[in-house]
Amino acid sequence: MRRAIGAGGVVIRIVVIGNGMAGTRLVQELRRHDPGRDLRITVVGAEVDAGYNRVLLSQVLAGALDVDEIGLTAPSWYTAENVTLLTGRAATWIDRDGRLVGLADGTVLPYDVLVLATGSRPWIPPIPGVAAGAHDPAGATTGPASTANAPAALQCTPLGSAGVERGEGAESSEGAESGAGVGGSTGRDRADESASFRCALQSDGDVLGLAPGVTAFRTLADCRTIIERLASVRRAVVLGGGLLGLEAARGLAGRGIDVEIVHPVDWLMERQLDAEAGRVLARTLRDLGVRTRLGVGAAEYVPGPDRTLVLSDGTRLPADLVVLSCGVRPDTELAAAAGLPVERGIVVDDRLRSPADPAVYAIGECAQHAGEVYGLVAPAWEQAAVLARVLTGGDDRYQGSRVVTRLKAADVDLAAMGDTHADDEDDSAEIVRFHDPSRGSYQKVVIRDGRLAGAIVVGESTTVGTITQLFDRATPVPRDRRALFFAGAAADSTDDPSRLPDRVTICRCNGVTKGAIASAWQQGARSVAEIADRTRATTGCGSCRQSVEGIVDWLTAADPTAHPEEVAV
Amino acid sequence: MRSNFPVRNTTEPMGKRPRHTVAGMTTADTHCPYCALQCGMRLNRDGRGEVAVAPRQFPTNQGGLCQKGWTATELLRPANRLTTPLLRGDRAVPFRTVGWDVALDAVADRIKRVQAEHGPDAVGILGGGGLTNEKAYLLGKFARVALRTRSIDYNGRFCMSSAAAAGNRAFGVDRGLPFPLTDMAGTGAILLAGGNLAETMPPIMQHVVAMRERGGAFIVVDPRRTPTAAQATLHLQAAPGTDLALALGLLHAAVTEGLVDDRYVATRTHGFENAWRMAAGWWPERVERVTGVPASQQRAAVRLLGAAARDRGAMILTGRGAEQHAKGTDTATAFINLALALGLPGRPASGYGCITGQGNGQGGREHGQKADQLPGYRRIDDPGARSHVAVVWGVDPATLPGPGPSAYELLDRLGTDGGVRALLVHGTNAAVSAPRAGHVRERLAALDLLVVSDVVLSETAAMADVVLPVAQWAEEDGTMTNLEGRVIRRRAVTSPPPGVRTDLEVLAGLAARLGHDDGFATEPRTVFEELRRASAGGPADYAGITYERIDAEDGVFWPCPDEEHPGTPRLFADRFETPDGRARLVAVDHRPAAEEIDGGYPVYLTTGRVLQHYQSGAQTRRIKELSDAVPAAVVEMSPDLAADHELAEGDHVRLVSRRGTAVGRVRVSTTIRPDTVFMPFHWGEEASANLVTNPALDPVSRMPEFKICAVRLERVAS
Fold first, then answer.
1. Cis ω on the peptide bond leading into residue B559 (within 30° of 0)?
2. Which candidate in A243, A402, A481, A509 is best for mutational testing of the B interface (most B CBs within 10 A)?
3. CA dihedral of residues B405, B409, B411, B416 (deg, nearest 10)
4. Whether the Cβ atoms of residue B195 and residue B319 lie closer than 8 Å to each other
5. At what angle do helices A528-535 and A545-558 cross, to 10 degrees?
6. Cβ count within 10 A of residue B362
7. Closest partner CB to A539 (pick from B65, B225, B291)
8. Which residue among A332, A547, B184, B544 has its CA within the 20 to 30 Å range from the CA of A74?
9. pTM of structure
């Protein structure tokens, strides 16, 4: 049994800031490794809601789940496990020398171990009229200086230009958990231009200071806001064609809302998909009632009775509701203010610990490990599991996560992982594709050194699980590449008895081969009953009866003595 | 040339009583000796003593038999039998044949010596799920009354314990199927997780085929495309060890697809909220990554079940593939939770069931050969149960021992301080069937005394100090309880060979030598009458069941508390057997296998059966037709895996795990996942798959993790 840090009579106080997917998982894992409840654990959540499953917000928006069905941990668990939960209280400062955390309500919490699981915040693009009173019209009109590839990318891609994690190709906006990338795919990190939005961003979704009719899609409160407004919404625009934007749009369409996605790049989910996959996806969405408007950004939102989103090409889209799904940025301010090393996220080592302070750890979307900031739940939960073991005396190390993006929207099947942009020009990659536009199917697998390096699966697939597991485990891909796309590529045996080899078992229950049936026939058995009498075929489960009948018919038809007139020629 | 066999469809319904005809022919209507389907068969013995099998109409098999049933009378051939007690003072020397008195005296003397030196618990019993109810009952009584040992368990621990534990905690009772098999034909969808019925109990597939012919859906969860999966409407080819995640994904999808029966959940269950909270974290796309089963297929499966649930009904069944894991109880629970969410248990042509494996795997787990149990499925730590049974047995309840160790734990400590030092084995072949069999063989060898009662010289018997030849199947009377909870008759058509005694006679003989002249009847009917009284009032209540009723009614379903009671073909119509009558959803979470694959052991091994062989193969390997059909252990693998190891069909391959090695012949197959090999467990010596398997135990049921471990493959030079 490993020794928990707290063993030996000293009470260890762990304060976890953040009650989202990472923080809730961490405390559960901690108690799993600490059955004696030696650790004194306090969790601080900024949102008023108790921890909920952010992944399922799109299901709530779609109406598949109710708001009260996505709670992560029963309130009774905290009582039973003696974990203190403080919700609706943001942490506002950290005193690392004194090992204290201050909360917005004045509470001061001493800690021995501090875990930052602060997650990320939605990116609010600097579009005039969106963030009322906080926007910078000048900043919003930097778009015209765009490249040919992404004409309006900058217009609506402050992500690429505003120092969000996008530049490194980080994954943090691809998950439903974290928001969707609207970002340009090439922008490098820049100086933080978003300072002017801080006041807005620090608040909960419904108090972001957004114009009426505009909402983010990040929190349960956002989700409630959208649902509450639905009755008065006929047309909605989703700004941002990343994963979360698509899920939001699909959910709204399912509720009968007229939805359009506005996405400044030439194809949807450009960071995960190649252009062809993006086109197939757009067609699939169109058939489900979701229109897409690509390669164009938003220039201005006009509130008021004629709510309208003006696009950078001048198009005016009536929009009772604008859902912002423009990506997220790690919430690192608290850490930065405390002097902890922060790049795109809070820098941590393989123990998920800050290199500057052995008492401070970070996990989830706010953490940056080995240069990577992850925006999906799977890595956050992997980190939580590792950290729980580390904090209970284990010698575990986090070694990074493999990221699979999986869209969760009714009737839209999409998975993307790894290196998806390799093309046929790339000599080091073997690319296998299957494209069936009529069925909305596009599948691409990138193979390097015999292993699956990346894949896109759009449309229903029986092998998507196989592909994912090949990617996760880095095991060799099948020699017969067709098996990547078609399960059971080897067809079942033919029904034509004349083509069956003699050794094929016809009656499995009794181990009777086609040869044995033929030989019984040769010996005079002319009906199924007579065959059964001699061979026991059909006397078990009876499911081979038709096959035996077929063989008898074939033998009869082929027998010269049975039909002398037919073979006389 | 084969002899002639009647076709099942031309078989007329036959009478049930043994009949003696004028021509010297004796006939007995009985059941097949092997699996829990207990196919009805008629045995005819001619004037020369030859016994032949004829099929018989019975609701379960409807006249069907598989190759094992057809050839079962080969077991009666003298060449295959033990016919005299064997004894040796030193295991290094061969057995000598001895008379029964010598053998039983020797056993009793050594039992007394071991108990005098090490206490009563140092003598243990390992029973079997193939024993009749009468034997299982008397074995438990012998342990508690004659030996006063807590050390008794049985091989059903390796078989049904996970499903039993899950059933008990959800429904308050464990009966494999809570409905007759014939209900299957009328249901609208069946999901079978981890079962290969088309090979393990083929005639049951008639019910599935009938369901499919009426448009029903058959969903099979299996890492292999088995003959059963090949007949499925939808095959979910989950990675080994991931059934629990899959069941959680199905529950998740049932909720998001709006298929939960809210009214049923509200009025007939407790615990849905917590079960959902766990399943909420297992959305189908996450489950897909763990199981390899596409999210779309998970939703499709749930839609089929949900639609059927609102129409003709739906059934969810589990087999050993889902249950023989260190998380087997929770896996069965997760499928039960799904069934409850869909509102299935207790509804017509609906419900959850497990497919019991061994011939009397149901009755064998009800009457006291389980470590924690007294007859009637009573708990041995329940004071009320102890007093009831003590009265029937005529002993002071205080003298009854408490719960003992589970089968693997018992085996693991054989010959050690505090462990069992003298072991009596009835109806099981642990040297082949236990996990980590190499270790178990070492432990068996470390015993002061090993006594094996068996029909043939099994691998375990071959290690013994004393071997006692006992009667079998067609030579004995008694009752079995099949997979439906239907109590049926086993009938003798012939006498045991001279020199062979019944297990009941063995127990009576030993009991007498241990000072218990009374209380150990040798007549099955007498024992059954006592079993009825002992089970009265328990969950598995046989009080109203008589041999005559079984004959007259095609078997009687328990519970049957009195002779006026019709028996209970269908459970849960009005209430569950819990204190408040509601079923319990228990919140369970997925976790990885006890041993996952890694660089050193990169391939999953999963184990199972082939059609021609049964359990450790002690019987079927001795039947020429079966042994000719499948003579040796094969290791099934994908073409890629074979190629990676430069293996071709028919080559010998060694499976190496952290616990041992096993050798089999390569069979290349496209029906298995490339990360997995399959090896059946019917063979002894170096061909025992269980030399490799993992004895990690389920925390609730103490089921070992037979169904998944990590191995590497090594080519064996020919």
1. yes
2. A509
3. -90
4. yes
5. 110
6. 32
7. B65
8. A332
9. 0.90
Give the A window 215-274 contacts with B, CB below 8 Å.
none
Task: For chain B, give the percent of residues with pLDDT over 90.
Answer: 95
Residues of B in contact with A71 (CB under 8 A): 277, 280
**If you compute the radius of gyration of chain A from its CA atoms, what whole number of angstroms results?**
30
For B388-421, the DSSP string reads HHHHHHTS-GGGS------HHHHHHTTTSTTS-S
pLDDT digits (tens, 9 = 90+) for B144-156: 999 999 999 999 9
Amino acid at B61: N
Nearest residue to A519 via CA among A496, A475, A552? A552
Q: Are B225 and A488 in contact (CB under 8 A)?
A: yes
Element (H, E) at A517: helix A514-522
Closest approach of A123 to chain B, Cα-based (Å): 26
Residue with tokens 């001048």: A314
* Cα–Cα distance measured from residue A478 to residue A495, given in angstroms and rounded to the nearest whole number: 28
- Find where tokens 């059903």 sit: B156
B286 in Cβ contact with A415 (< 8 Å): no
C-alpha distances in angstroms, A105 versus A91, A528, B320?
9, 85, 56
DSSP readout, B330-377?
HHHHHHHHHHHHTT-TTSTT-EEEE---STTTTGGGTSS-STTEETTT
Inter-residue contact B487 to B557 (CB < 8 Å): yes
pLDDT at residue A7 greater than cutoff 70: no
Reported residue count of chain B is 718
Token couple for A113: 């171990």
**Per the structure block, which two tokens stand in for A369?**
């490990």
Could you tell me the pLDDT band of residue A194, with boundaries at 50, 70 and 90? very low
Chain B interface includes A536 (CB < 8 A): yes
Residue A103 has, within 13 A of its CA and on its CB side, a CA count of 22
Q: What is the mean pLDDT of residues B256-264?
A: 97
- CB-based contact B628:B683 (threshold 8 Å): no
| Mean pLDDT estimate for chain A | 83
Taking the C-alpha atoms of residue B253 and residue B259, their distance in angstroms, rounded to an integer, is 8
Token look-up 């019984």 returns A520
Confidence (pLDDT) at B9: 40
- Candidate from A125-139, A215-229, A425-439, A522-536 with smallest mean pLDDT: A125-139
Whether the Cβ atoms of residue B516 and residue B510 lie closer than 8 Å to each other: no
Question: In the predicted model, what is the mean pLDDT of residues A226-241?
Answer: 95
* Identity of the residue numbered B257: E
pLDDT band at B588 (very low <50, low <70, confident <90, very high): very high
Q: What is the pLDDT of residue A157?
A: 33
User: Per the CB < 8 Å rule, is A541 touching B276?
Assistant: no
User: Which residues in A lie closer than 8 A to residue B55 (C-beta atoms)?
Assistant: 539
Asked if A508's CB is within 8 angstroms of B5's CB, the reply is no
